[in-house]
């Protein structure tokens, strides 16, 4: 199977759950990469999405007896947990009526939150980072699959593990389905990196307003979602 045909299958497969469609996933993953780039470059070197990094940095501050410094990492961690709680609550309340509508609500709420973040001054970075973490965790909780494969749109480590696992299986078994799965994960990682690169490119120009680009990506996802309902 040619590379072009594989990419075509990646992009053109339609799923019952429209949030699993590749084109939808591309735009929310671009947003995921940009969010991390934004919070780190523009908002004081805090990771909005990679909470493992925040735990490491918070622990470092605590060991250094810099308890006030640890707060800037603790609050985004708590916000991440709250975001999962909010998204799952929406899921439990709405999914019984329509399994897609709850994801639509999460997406709309995420756009609103990130738009607000774009107008928060630098002196309130801790609030901005907390809201970005909240948005990130809602996105992770709502959107978990691409063409039937579990993935993460806001971080790479799980995608890297799954991609290498699938590639290894393909090398040893020549199973075309494993190759197909590996391509999915590596393309998602590439899109995430592109989102981070867009953030790094425009951060010096847009500063706090950089996050509005995320709102644009998510709005495109929202339109794609609504069109397929």
How many domains make up the coordinates?
Answer: 1
Secondary structure tally, helices:
9
Strand line-up across the major sheet: 1-2
Q: Topology as H/E string?
A: HHHHHHEEHHH
* Major sheet attributes: 2 strands, antiparallel
Query: What's the alpha carbon Rg, rounded to whole Å?
Result: 18 Å
Distance, first to last CA: 31 Å
Q: Report strand %.
A: under 5%
Helix/sheet category: mainly alpha
The amount of helix comes to: over 70%
What average pLDDT do the residues reach?
A: 89
Low-confidence stretches: none
Number of strands: 2
The 3D shape can be described as globular
Structural write-up:
The chain is mainly α and 229 residues long. The protein has one domain (3-228). Helix content is 75%, strand content 2%. It has helices at 3-12, 22-41, 51-63, 67-94, 101-117, 125-142, 157-173, 176-206, 212-228, and strands spanning 145-146, 149-150. The chain has a two-stranded antiparallel sheet with strand order 1-2. Helix 2 (22-41) runs antiparallel to helix 9 (212-228) and helix 5 (101-117) packs antiparallel against helix 6. The longest helix is centred in the last third of the chain and has 31 residues, at 176-206. It is globular, with a radius of gyration of 18 Å. The protein starts with a helix and ends with a helix. The mean pLDDT is 89.
